[in-house]
Write a structure and sequence with these properties.
Length: 436
Amino acid sequence: MTQTQTNSSTASYRDTYYTRTMVPSLDAAPLTDRIETEVCIIGGGIAGISCAYELTKAGRAVVLLEADQIAWGASGRNGGVVGPGFAADGAAIEKKLGMKTAKQIFDLSQEGVDIFRSYTETLALPGVDMRPGSLSVTRYRDAQAMQDYIRHKADAYGYQLDYISTEKLREMVRTDRYFDGVYDPQGFHAHSLNYCLGLARETQRLGGRFFENTRAVSMSRHGAGHLITTPAGSIQCQNIILCQGGMVDGFHKRLQRNLLPIGTFVTATEPLGDLADEIISTTAAIVDTRMACDYFRITPDRRLLWGGGMTGMALEPANLEQQMRRALTSVFPQLADVKIDATWSGLLGYARHRMPYVCELHDGVWAATGLGGHGINVGPIIGRLIAEALVENGQRHKVLDSYGLTWNGSMFGPLAADTVYYWEALKERYFEWRYR
């Protein structure tokens, strides 16, 4: 297990399980000059880094600007669960686009999973610590629906999943809170911050340039290209890729009007030792099927990493640690006296339709954002699709064109998001009461 870093640059990262177990930070200097490049990427999360790597590997000159540090936001703070799919429900995608296009879109998400796994292995990215398996669980009896889902995935998508009965599930996850499960043997969980840092270093090795603590202030047309200004420098480029996600801050007002930052919360316990085996006897990450789901896993150093909850108000509760403790002890009461080592929040970028934006907003300005909490698989495939479009006029990204820019609701957007969340939570509680 990688040891906690003590260099000064980690001080600006939020204290999380990931920063306590991170490989050395990138320590890229801020931009202080006027430079030229072919492509400028704004935002150093997994989407931005993936774009930078794919384009640099293809021989393009790339500069990436990050207002804080690499993977400072949700890309370095998430639950670490990797599996195919998007924030939008698969049935809703099928209804909107039909099965043929829905399968194309699902295949892209699966390709994103494969990219993450492949790059981790072939590039020997340190500290990513992939662990096998992903397990979806219900909080009420729903065996028929789960089995129907498995058959549909196999028949329509060619994707194989396994049904887990209540008896078997409770051997794997020792709680009476869950009833039926779907196991994905191709899913896994990993250290997303270390993946981002490792891929960023590989990009630098290939010639890509990163500037941390460098906020893009403005952009304008400049001849046949664009000029981006920062507090102490500027970049002349042919193409801009906006990858700001939940941290969008007004740099591109049109995109900001079409992204909704959603706050989510994660906590990590102290190392549990043998207690880890007493509560979970599978290597898989566990995710329940609710809209604002709980998701948790045993880390390589045998902590319980637990995430759950969401808010459109993007505010962190003052009693967040107590809330997270209540949530995890409602499933595992035997952890009531376990110490919480770190608790944190993050902002995810959502579109109202819950699908990513992968499109050219106007001449030479691209959006690669709106990952909706599925960044670990969506970010890598977004990077590949954008690179294909810029390098070889690739068109695969156009399968997402039906999910264009949608107004986020302005000041009413967060309220609407929370209203939907609370309504869904009430329905889910009814089902839990009705079908236990």
